[in-house]
Amino acid sequence: MAEKGFKDGLEAFGYTTEFVTFNADQDVTKLGNFLSSIASQSDEFDYVYTFGTTISRRAQLVLNNKVPQLFNIVTDPVGAGIIEKATAERGNIGGASDAVPLSRLFKITIDFFGFQKIGLFFNPREKNSLLIRKEIQALAKTHRFEVVDFRSPPAAQILKENLQKLIDNPKMVDAVYLPADSFLVSNAALIGRQLRSAKIVSIGSVRNFIEAGVLMGFAVDYYELGKAVAAIVDRNQRGEELQQIPVARGDFSLMINQTTSELLGIKKTEFESMTIEIIP
Question: N or C: which end of the chain has fewer CB within 10 A?
């Protein structure tokens, strides 16, 4: 959806754009080859658009400002080392962050569910995933809940094994949190279906998760983030230095999956004090 928003946004600004798509398919070797190819043909591209933390960081290192880079769906671009500061000179790079306020989300869910043990799916190979884990561990100390790690590197079999552990023993945690990791997002349908069938309370940080059956979450609209990156291109084309344009941040909303909430016996009226978006 982010790419569609990006393309639609460029079209709305009046640009006719040719796209050359490189899909590394979670393969680090393929990714390295793609980036080396782009770096050697840097004069053929006006911009390089990257999705997610791992590829954006790798591209920033390999391209080394040879081609203007636009990153998207990076939770913490500063913490991940992609840029030094969100609002100052940072090289030939700009983009958008999909960060959501974890402290607020966890306060709402703790107040509502009173959970004491939360399962955390995270990618130990991705910097942003580790930063989110660190933040949640800090919140756990403040709110006195336990974090149960489910290490989920980009490997389908490991993800299935983690989900099976929960299906076999749904009481091992009170809820599951799913961060904005590109591998997890690409498997949102499987994750949402399995957690819903096991009647496990689930919290996601991306709209795709809630649409796929995850119960709730503060989530950013990827389509709108794509349009925000298109707006950065327009500003750059109109004369602003790319590195001077602040990192775009998407609006977020509390989303509830109606089917899952009904399955878990949660009534919409219980959230009446909050502004929410109901996902069928």
Answer: C
Do 86 and 168 reside in the same domain of the chain?
Answer: no
pTM: predicted TM-score of the whole model, two decimal places: 0.76
Structural domain including 109 reads 102-220+253-279
Taking alpha carbons only, the member of 35, 72, 82 closest to residue 185 is 72
Distance of CA 257 to the CA centre of its chain: 18
Q: What's the distance, Cα to Cα, between the start and end of the chain in Å?
A: 18
Number of domains the chain contains: 2
Residue 268 and residue 141 share a domain: yes
Q: Please tell me what DSSP assigns to residue 243.
A: G
What does the pLDDT profile of the chain (280 residues) look like in tens digits?
889 999 999 999 999 999 988 887 777 788 888 888 888 888 889 999 998 888 898 888 888 888 899 999 888 888 888 887 655 455 789 999 988 888 888 888 888 888 999 999 998 888 888 888 999 999 999 999 999 999 999 899 999 999 999 999 999 999 999 998 888 988 999 999 999 999 999 999 888 899 999 999 887 788 899 999 999 999 999 999 998 899 998 877 789 999 999 999 987 666 666 668 889 8
